[in-house]
Known about the structure:
Largest interface: A-B, 111 and 85 residues
Mean pLDDT of chain A: 88
Number of strands of chain B: 0
Oligomer: heterodimer
CATH class of chain B: Mainly Alpha
Helix content of chain B: 55-70%
Low-confidence stretches of chain B: none
Largest sheet of chain A: 2 strands, antiparallel
Order of helices and strands of chain B: HHHH
Largest sheet of chain B: none
Strand content of chain A: under 5%
Mean pLDDT of chain B: 86
CATH topology of chain B: Helix Hairpins
Strand order of the largest sheet of chain A: 1-2
Structural class of chain B: mainly alpha
Radius of gyration of chain B: 20 Å
Strand content of chain B: under 5%
Number of domains of chain B: 1
Structural class of chain A: mainly alpha
Amino acid sequence: MTLMWILLLPLLGTLVPLLAAKWNRSACALATALPPAIALMLVLVHTEPVLSGETVRFFLSWIPLLGLDISIRLDGLAYLFSLLILGIGLLIILYARYYLSERDSMPRFYAYLMLFMTAMLGIVLSGNLLQLWMFWELTSISSFLLISFWWHKAEARRGARMALTVTGAGGLALLAAFLLIGQVVGSYDLDVVLASTDVIQQHSWYPILLVLFLLGCFTKSAQFPFHFWLPNAMAAPTPVSAYLHSATMVKAGIFLLARFYPALSGTELWFILVSLTGLTTLLIGAYLALFKHDLKGLLAYSTISHLGLITLLFGMGTDLAAVAGVFHIINHATFKASLFMAAGIIDHESGSRDMRKLNGLWQFMPITATLAMVAAAAMAGVPLLNGFLSKEMFFAETLHQHLLGSLSWVIPVLATVAAIFSVAYSMRFIHDVFFNGQPKGLTKTPHEPPRYMRVPVEVLVALCILVGIFPAYLIGDLLHAASASVLGGTVPEYSLAIWHGFNLPLMMSILALAGGTLIYVNRKHLFDFQNTLPDMDALNSFEGGVKALIARCDQFYQWLDNGSLQRYMVLVLLAFIVLAGMPLLELDTLWGGRDELPIDAVNATGAAMLLIAAFATVVWHRKRVVALLMISVVGLMVSIAFTRFSAPDLALTQLSVEVVTVILLMLALFFLPHKTPKQSEAPRVVRDISIASMVGVLVGSLSYGLMTRPLNSISEFFLANAKTGGGGTNVVNVILVDFRGFDTMGEIAVLGIASLGIFKLLTRIPVFKPSSDGEGRPWATERHSLLLSTVSQSLLPLAVMVSVYIFFRGHNLPGGGFIAGLITAVAIILQYIAQGVDWVKERMNVEYQRVVAVGLLIALFTGVGSWVFGRPFLTSWFDYFDIPLLGTIELASAIAFDLGVYITVVGSTLLILASLGKMTTSHRPVHKDTI
Amino acid sequence: METLFACCIGFLTACGVFLMLRGRTFPVVLGLTMLSYAVNLFIFSSGRLTLRGAAVLGTSEQYADPLPQALVLTAIVIGFAMTAFLVILAIRARADLGNDHVDGKLPESEMSKKESR
Lengths: 931, 117
């Protein structure tokens, strides 16, 4: 559990500075430093087991089905990184206290910083791949917030966006890699993955997942060709640069290389990709760093170059190289963080970071200058400092590798070249800033910083020196433990001594120092040469690329989404044709082995009528009334088909719905044109006919294939349990009100919502009064047919009686709430048609939306009622009662549910039709003399 | 019989799709209605065709599959609700926009014809 707190404390720590915002700055900084300080102690508590090679774990099952667990593991590597993150983090908190001005919101800065710290700790402590990825993304987001901390500056916003785009894209690649690894290994647990080296490397996906994985690492660690975001991220406040862009976040990619070293490395592909990327980055970074006039720009490129060096070490494939890589991670973090902080002090106290203006600062800030010089010397690899040791190991390893076959000698040569430039830019940092004449054009006189602002630099520089002089004593155990977890247990023999005798690596170091000095002295020629090269602005070209991409997407989107529904319909149908057609092409035959029923005369006649009516609808679709009549014939034939094929309930429903639909469409035609103008040109008609035929052929084929396959249905259950479990013999009805009652509940809710929607659509509709039909004939003036009104009045009680009968028998014989509801609705609509809205309203003044609500509530409460008896929602209940005179009667709770259905159907249908019908009446021209 | 049934479904679908591709709202509504007939028949037929076997217990030896029937029954009612909603939407659109084209505006070819008149 203490492991969990290492993560939780910084997370809770994000709130601390916000709560402490009202206190003075020092108190706020102190309060902020408290949680990470405790977390650091918690890490240190585990020193003994970890250094002796143990892995401390904490596990909490979270979503095991997805392979997602909360898993924290602390091994040597994680321990090393936790120390760096928390230790340097604490120094940064102290430093930022003095660095940020009164105008900056310090609590906000600290909150972002703590969020970042949590994310970073999450990465190094994760024992689950998905969890690790989540924290990985969190670092991208929190670093975005930190880089854009000075959001009022355009370059900060642009730099932050670029960093987020590049690292975010890399994050997606990493997610893909993790998912692939999870698929290959069958687990997202880090321990399992690390133990599955052979499974992963022999899998055919290995090249893909490795490339995706490396994309994630390289974007984060600013490796060539993704290095361009790092210099632009220097728009961030300097504490952020020191923390994220030298010590921690950019090391996250390298951390992953180290973390997955046992599982992924050792193949030819790994060597080539990792080492060549590292080598290229090392050279480009070292070379470009020399030409940057901005202090932080120089440090940024130097960071890129050192990250390349570490990557190269991990790509070499020897165990010793990996040890050297881990060692250089520690050393680089210490000297680079202190250099960034020194640069921040210089900027803060002299008002500029431009090395063309900054000169001769030695006389103004001798202590800072000394510290910076020591750190820069460590960066250059001067003996007795930590940078020298890891660089020696690096040189030694370049001599031992055989990456490029007979051309392998190139690598040590190029490594020396890079080291020469490294010495040159380090010298520039020292000489150009602290000596080399007098400052030019500074806005303020430089001076030493506040006492405590220098403390973090002093601590780190002291570490540089101490590690440089007593390496084995100070960090021998730590390095051993961390290397052990990178290499999977066995660590090769190595010696952390300063003096290894006169050997080739020492020669290379001496050559680098001499060559670097030479280049720096003659830098003018090199600068002149560099100035003749075209200036490359990564930010502008990157943003240009993004803009072009957006414009291209926009174009595509405009083409695809041009606002025409007709066109969308065509696209959807074409997609259907392709998606449904492809699998059918692979099928040998449609017939599924089931014998067909014989065709009799009745069926053949019915089918013929259906086809003719459908065809007539299409042919006459521009004469709308005729088309409406034709389509009603189709509906009629469909309901006959239901009767014929043993679905009496469906037939009854279809028939009553048909009546309601035709009335509705007739009413609608009052408001719509009665004829469709001829508009489609011949090519379009041909196109539409082709699409329609193709869809028809596909659906017909699917249907044939489905019907001729043997039936394997779950309906046996319903048939067997309808009577015993649901208390009814009409299985369809029992399914509706009992087995699948919850579905029905949803469906009547949809019905109710649709009718309410219609009601709302029709209120306050702009007045639109057609005074005549489509051919200019005025509407009939007699209001209501006498015959119809007489008949309809006498029909009403009869119809209601029929619907009651249909309703009650529904549980055992065809019928039920849906059908009864529709019959009742039709009977009432007939009154509207025969007598008019006003007449009905006088006699039956009901608000149908209330009826809908009552119906839905009845259905709902019937369902909830079963809770009272401790049964699940909508469990139905039934029993038989002996009632004198009437005999045995069955009462079922399902009847109440069906009643809800009935009332909802009546209410919705009437709400729809009456709302529409009312409008035709109000717009009807009134002829006073006929009333 | 199955062949004929499948042909009917296919033909209804084709007619429905053709009507749905028209430009004015009313034919589109007719097309959707037609398509919903086809879809209902399709789902119904997934329980296979059975003669004289209504799923009322005690009335026959071999029962038709009741499950697709129950599904189609609610589908018919909801289909009605959706048709109604669509029709009212069409009416509202015509009242608000002044035309009954599905895109909400007449195609350019037609506009120019109107202007030249």
